[in-house]
Amino acid sequence: MESSNGMSASSCKKAMLPRYKLGKTLGHGAFGKVKLAVHTLTGIKVAIKILERQSIDEYEAQKVRKEIDIMRQLFHPHIVRLFEVVDTPANVYVVMEYMDSGELFYYLTENGKLHEDEARHFFQQIISGVEYCHRHLVVHRDLKPENLLLDSDRNVKIADFGLGNIMRDGHFLKTCCGSPNYAAPELISRRLYAGPEVDVWSCGVILYALLCGRLPFDDDNIPGLYAKIKNGVYPAANHVSESGRDLISRILVVDPMRRISIPEIRRHPWFRRQLPRYISMSSPNASGGTEKIEIDAVKEMVRMGFDGREVIVSIQNHLHNEATVAYSMLLHSFSREQGMQLDNPIKENRGHSDAAQMVTTLTATPPVLPGSNNWTLGFKSLASPNETMSDVLKVFHGLNVRWKRIGHYNMKCLWLPPSAVDAIKFEIQLYKASGEKYVLDMQQLNGPPFIFLDICAAFQAQVVV
Question: Which superfamily does CATH assign the domain made up of 104-280 to?
Answer without folding.
Answer: Transferase(Phosphotransferase) domain 1 (1.10.510.10)
